[in-house]
UniProtKB/TrEMBL annotation:
Inhibits mammalian alpha-amylases specifically but has no action on plant and microbial alpha-amylases. It comes from Streptomyces adustus. Residues 1-27 form the signal peptide. GO terms for molecular function: alpha-amylase inhibitor activity; lyase activity. InterPro entries: A-amylase_inhib, A-amylase_inhib_sf. Disulfide bonds join 36-52, 70-97. It comes from the Bacteria. Gene3D superfamilies: Alpha-amylase inhibitor. Keywords: Alpha-amylase inhibitor, Disulfide bond, Lyase, Signal. This is Alpha-amylase inhibitor.
Length: 107
């Protein structure tokens, strides 16, 4: 096997291993978000407002089964997620999530 071909095969194997061992967004979700966290959706954006007195970590679930990245939202803060788009991929709800490697969205 030539050196460039072997290097390409090793790179592909490493990428596949990363994809297989990476946790899915669904596995990181918890219970439904508190009622004091509300969302407003449009075709372009879904805005989430934390009206709670505590910081919350939430993700958005869509009709196609996909999940948005987890976001940490401070009290009275906002976060923006993808909207439903031209295919009608509407939000079905908000769920709590594990805030690993996320940034805080402020007020």
């Amino acid at each position: 096997m030539s050196r460039p071909l072997a290097l390409a095969a090793m790179s592909a194997a490493g990428l596949l291993t990363t994809l297989i061992t990476a946790p899915s967004a669904v596995a990181a979700t918890g219970s439904p978000a508190p009622e004091c966290v509300e969302y407003f959706q449009s075709w372009r954006y879904t805005d989430v407002h934390n009206r709670c007195g505590d910081t919350v970590s939430v993700t958005v679930e869509y009709t196609d089964g996909q999940w948005a990245p987890c976001r940490v939202i401070a009290p009275d803060g906002w976060a923006t997620f993808s909207g439903y788009g031209t295919n009608g991929n509407y939000v079905t709800g908000l769920r709590t999530c594990d805030p690993v490697l996320v940034t805080t969205e402020g007020a």
